[in-house]
Amino acid sequence: MAKFLRDILLALACALLLAACGNDAVKPDMRLVEAYVEIRVIEQTYGAETPAGRLSRQATLQKYGYTTKSFTEACDAVLNDEALWLPFEQAVTERIDSLLGIPKPVKDPKKKKEGAK
Predict the structure, then answer these.
(1) Is the pTM of this model over 0.85?
(2) Is the Cα torsion angle 63, 93, 45, 57 positive or negative in sign?
(3) Is residue 100 within 8 Å of residue 41, measured between CB atoms?
């Protein structure tokens, strides 16, 4: 079970690296984003196979109202749909950046868009 969950999270992390841009038309499921980020932090802190890691993952899933099966299904649905994936990837990146204290980039309204004169 833990190996399967780890494989799903690894696949999502790899896809995160491959995704290039976001899509503003679809809003990501922020409950899934929060759960996903917390589980990634737990795996980085405790490891994927440790008893503390497994217990923490289960507590996190319960906190966000997921079972292992429902979380995996939600992740699969996002991973298999580009329209869902891109906003999810952007939200995960923003959440991780916020945890690391990296400020969001601010667009300079004085700068013209490329190609405009």
Answers:
(1) no
(2) positive
(3) no
Say whether 16 sits in a helix, a strand or coil. helix
Burial of 28 (0-12, 13-18, 19+ CB in 10 A): buried
Domain ranges of the chain: 2-12+33-100
Question: CA–CA distance from 32 to each of 77, 90, 114 (Å)?
Answer: 11, 13, 35
The mean pLDDT of 95-106, rounded to a whole number, is: 84
The secondary element (H helix, E strand) that includes residue 53 is helix 51-63
pLDDT in tens, 20-77: 444 446 899 999 999 999 999 999 999 988 999 999 999 999 999 999 999 999 999 9
CB 9 within 8 A of CB 39: yes
